[in-house]
Write a structure and sequence with these properties.
Length: 354
């Protein structure tokens, strides 16, 4: 059998092209798979809608990704895909600006002012800011500056893993005025150890020093949470992890009282998994990596929240019980009613797959 796939308008057209050539049927026959419905018609229908939507997007939303492995864009492949899935589901084309965190730091102003001002200009132009995961101290101060800017200027922000840890450090230094607050990953001797090693980090000589894999986060009833609403107002979510450090539980109450609220914990209530800043359009940090479970038809809720907030649509989406607006004259979302329920159904409420 010869399968021909000519260039398509997007990658989302490839499964449709394969299906036109009945590839699934071919394999089902050859391998004698007793599959009842190939391919699942509902799924193909949803997929076609997605591909059509991709070709019809006219509006753009700009998100700044403030990272440190920016020369190797593949390092952030899953983060970028998760942003694209969310943008696609709300009918916006993603315009991604990748900013090298170190370029935002004060010393770059002296050594390479062009780079410094260009980086700041890119950040200021963005409608939302994403700080992804990472390891080691290079670029951390630049990330903290970007987060401070997003907090003060009320720009939607999502911090993932190290990104959340940096948001905690920023808040400790600039709001709580704890000079020298840091993570022990960056400075083990710092004055306020707001992010500390977890016991797993010292697992002996056998390796396996990270807390990894799918784990449950329980939402607390103590504070309202936009992220919880985005997940469908569930009591808990399962997401994947990959870290060695955690928010120091000793300081949690001080953060909560000052408005940086830890709204999700692990099953023992000890590890901080989700933080949200009260009185901000969207300022969310997650210790886990929600991008790993984002899918084109099931955008990850923390990413979807960032994109909706960046487009100024988050509040109306939440007020509608996590639905996009129905078609009305002047509506920003050009969707049919069928599509709204589809999007709602698709958004990841509770993770059902690995
Ligand atoms: N994946 C990450 O972002 C890890 C964050 C941090 N370096 C830690 O180990 O906890």
């Amino acid at each position: 059998m010869v399968v021909c796939i000519h260039d398509r308008s997007s990658i989302y057209r490839v499964p449709l092209a394969l299906e036109e050539q009945r590839l699934a049927h071919f394999f089902a026959d050859r391998l004698q798979l007793q599959l009842p419905d190939i391919p699942a018609r509902q799924l193909m229908w949803k997929w076609r809608q997605l591909a059509d939507r991709h070709d019809q997007m006219t509006k753009e939303v700009t998100i700044a990704l403030v990272g440190k492995y920016t020369r190797l864009q593949d390092s952030y492949a899953s983060v970028i895909k998760a942003l694209q899935h969310s943008a696609l589901n709300i009918h916006y084309k993603l315009h991604l600006t990748v900013i090298e965190a170190e370029s935002l730091e004060h010393q770059t102003k002296a050594t390479d002012p062009v780079k410094y001002y260009e980086a700041w200009q890119s950040l200021c132009k963005a409608e939302g800011v994403l700080c992804p995961g990472g390891f080691g101290d290079r670029g951390v101060e630049g990330k903290i500056l970007a987060i401070e800017w997003a907090r003060i200027n009320r720009k939607p922000f999502l911090g993932v893993c190290l990104g959340m840890q940096c948001a905690v450090i920023e808040f400790a230094r600039n709001v709580l005025r704890w000079d020298g607050a840091n993570s022990t990953e960056m400075n083990a001797e710092c004055a306020h150890r707001v992010v500390i090693d977890m016991p797993e980090h010292h697992g002996g000589d056998m390796g396996g020093t990270m807390r990894v894999g799918r784990r449950t986060t329980i939402f607390s009833d103590k504070y309202p949470s936009e992220l919880r609403q985005l997940y469908g107002d569930v009591a808990s979510v399962d997401e994947r992890h990959r870290h060695r450090y955690e928010v120091n539980p000793e300081y949690v109450e001080a953060f909560n009282e000052a408005g940086l609220r830890f709204v999700g914990q692990d099953t023992d209530g000890q590890r901080m998994e989700v933080m949200e800043l009260a009185d901000h359009p969207y300022f969310v940090g997650v210790q886990y990596h929600p991008e790993y479970l984002s899918r084109p038809l099931k955008p990850s809720p923390p990413y979807l929240g960032l994109l909706l907030a960046a487009c100024g649509k988050l509040q109306s989406y939440l007020n509608r019980g996590c639905r996009l607006t129905p078609r009305e004259p002047g509506s920003d979302f050009e969707s049919s009613d069928e599509e709204f329920s589809l999007i709602k159904e698709n958004v990841y409420h509770k993770v059902a797959e690995n």
